[in-house]
Amino acid sequence: MQNNWETMTALELGHKIATNFIDPVELAEYFLERIKDHDGARSIYVRHTKARALEEAEAARVRVRTGMTRSRLDGVPISWKDLYDTANIPTEGGSPLLVGRTPTTDALVLKRATMAGLVCLGKTNTVQFALGGIGSNPHTGTPPNAVMKDAPRAPGGSSCGAAVSVATGLAAAAIGSDTGGSVRVPAAWNCLVGLKTSYGALPLDGVLPLSPTLDTVGPLTKSVADAAEIFGILGARIPVDLEGRNPVNRLRLLSPTNVVWDQADPKVESNTRKALDALASLGAAVVHDTVQAFDEITDAIKHGGIATAEAYTTWRHLVDTKGAAIDPNVLARFHQGREMSAPDVEIVRAEVRKQAPALYAKLAGFDAMVMPTVAILPPTLKSIEQDPEAYRIANMLALRNTTLGNILPCCAVTLPIPGDIPCGLMVMAPAGHDNRLLRIAATIEKALGSGQG
What we know:
Strand order of the largest sheet: 1-3-2-4-6-5-10-11-9-7-8
Order of helices and strands: HHEHEHEHEHEEHEHEHHHHEHHEEH
Oligomer: single chain
Number of helices: 15
Number of domains: 2
Helix content: 40-55%
Largest sheet: 11 strands, mixed
Strand content: 5-15%
Number of strands: 11
Distance between the termini: 22 Å
CATH architecture of the largest domain: Alpha-Beta Complex
CATH superfamily of the largest domain: Amidase signature (AS) domain
Radius of gyration: 20 Å
CATH class of the largest domain: Alpha Beta
């Protein structure tokens, strides 16, 4: 009988392993063989960790046989964005300027995942330095969008390889990072669940930095349940119980009418509004209203944001001396950060201090906000690769909605909206409410019928 393990959720695989229906070594070999067969160009995985994966899978096999499994995902193979330090394996952030950078220890979240029995398949591709929402990389190659195949299209970034590894069945789940949308954009454009965790909810020890006050760790998965399970593991805490959550007809949701729909692709707008109407038809109270904080913060960052300023500060020693080797589209964003003055940055921070409480007050009577994750469809690579202005506009639109949840401190989940195009419904809540958000997202996922688990 032919296996279809690549179509299963991480929790489904974990259950099959724990009940002796799947051998973890055979499972690891299965995914490694799929990677070899489907990623010959190495645009999805920049490097495999075959020896480590098989060693970890063998250890999981022993634990299963002795009844000593460490978690519900013991033995499940996942991928890691090439920002996470991996002992004795290069971690280069997609950049030619970091080639050969080889850490001696694992990032803390990778250590926790390994202790829980997750199997590391390899390191996935990223936009250089993780600075970009399109997902292209002229140095390591650009993974293909896994959903729209009419022409080579953007996979979304910066966690491009992470998303495509899951969407093409080359990993059961993936770990990405999100500073301005780098988990949610590729998840939405590849019909996955993507969790943007609250800043500080998961440790950044051993993670290549971009914007130290905005960087977050987050999973890309096939279901909210998988995301919740991985969030618990990486946070070294018991995963949130998604059972017994409120039914959809008890949800009160705020749908912003400003900013997030601007310049939206008609198909994205139509599908998203249909999803909101579907929730309302099931009894959810969907209230459409202006969120003034969105207008104010959008105006404050029109000349540059905290992320670009901190990104330049973090990598200025390379940007200023070896900038010619950096992707020109990424370099342009570094230069945008360089051009921001200290007063420019403080104006943005002051506006955040003002608008975050205003946003939280607006949300006080709601369970969450709901909106399109990305307002546009994945652009064709041909339309942006040789046109810096087209890239700039597409990148801005790709990240605009998601960035709101980074700069105005929030946690967020993108859910795939069923349909014939890749688009996501973003569910957002104030920072620190990750577990509550996951329960709300699980309810919405079930109502929309978009989950795979």
